[in-house]
Design goal:
- The chain has one domain.
- Helix content is about 65%, strand content about 5%.
- The chain has three helices and two strands; from the N terminus they run αααββ.
- Strands 1-2 form a two-stranded antiparallel ribbon.
- α1 (about 20-30) packs antiparallel against α2, α1 runs parallel beside α3 (about 55-95) and α2 (about 35-50) runs antiparallel to α3.
- It is rod-shaped, with a radius of gyration of 29 Å.
């Protein structure tokens, strides 16, 4: 009976192109959506050219588009709300005339 020959442990798999950049892109998506989205796209492209799948980059792309879309929606809502508030104050000043006025809800309004 023969004893099996010693086999050294298998080497750790080498990093593939875009792996680290994909992870960086995924993390950045949570802080700066558009930069993380761009880095995730670059990492995904690098990995695809080399024939590897890059799951962190793919998740970064999906989350990046979601966060950018939500950011656009929130920006539109804030601009519309601010415009409505500012427009309402301007119409109050047009009705009341120049000077300092106390509105019915107790808010002080100074019209120029």
């Amino acid at each position: 009976m023969t004893t099996p020959a010693y086999q050294p442990p298998a080497a750790a798999p080498a990093d593939y192109p875009g792996k680290t950049l994909g992870i960086v892109g995924l993390v950045l998506v949570f802080f700066t959506g558009i930069i993380g989205l761009i880095l995730s796209h670059v990492a995904f492209s690098q990995s695809k050219k080399a024939g590897f799948q890059n799951t962190p980059a793919k998740v970064g792309i999906i989350l990046g588009w979601i966060f950018v879309g939500l950011g656009i929606i929130i920006t539109i809502i804030l601009i519309a709300g601010g415009a409505a508030l500012f427009g309402g104050l301007l119409s109050e000043c047009a009705n009341l005339g120049p000077g300092e006025h106390t509105l019915s809800n107790g808010v002080q309004l100074t019209c120029g």
